[in-house]
C-alpha cells in the first residue's frame, strides 16, 4: 500500500470519528434545541466542504431555512449512515438518497449529473447501463438507489464496490486499482484538480442525465416551511449566484 493510500485511510478514520461525535451530540439535544438538524454527506465538494462547513448545497439549504426563520445545524456522515439516521428519526432532515415511504421530500434543491470516468487510454465503450456489468468500478455509496437499472447491472459484477469517502476515487483510478469510477461530474473535477491531474488523462462517459436532489424530512410542516424558503431563494436569483461563486473559486 503506497503512502497516498495510507494518508487517505487516516483521513477517513478522522472523518468517521468526527461523524460519531457530532451525531451523538445531535441525538442528545434532539428534544431540547432551537435549530433543525440536517445530515449531509462529508466528502462531496464543491457541494459540501466538511472542514470549512460550507459549499453549494450547504449554502442553499441554510439560506432557504433562513427565509423560513429557522436555524440550521449540519451534521456530516456517509450516505449509508445518513439514510439510517433519517429512517430512525434521529435527525430532522437529510440530503441523501430517498428515505422510507413516511419521509417527506422537498422541492429540488440542486441538480446533479453523475458520470462514469475512466482513464483516457480505456478503449471500451460505456454507452448503456449493461456496460458497467463487467468492469472494475468504484462508485459513491448508495449509488444504486439513484439510478434505475444500476442495481441489476452490477448485481453479478465482482469488481463493483462503493466508497464511503469520495476523495479516494480519483487516486484509485489513477493507481490502476479500478477501471472506472462513478461520481458527480463537478465532484470529479474538484478532486481531479486537487490531485493535480490534467483533464487529458481522463475520459468522461455521460451515461446519466442531470437529476434533481432533494432534502428529505421527518416532519411535513417543516418540509413545507423549507419549500417556501427555497421558493423565495429562487425568486431572488440567489441559487445561481451561490453556484457561480464556488465554481469560480475552485476553477470548475
TrEMBL record:
InterPro entries: Solute-binding_3/MltF_N. Keywords: Signal. This is ABC-type amino acid transport substrate-binding protein. Residues 38-248 form the Solute-binding protein family 3/N-terminal domain. It holds the Pfam family SBP_bac_3.
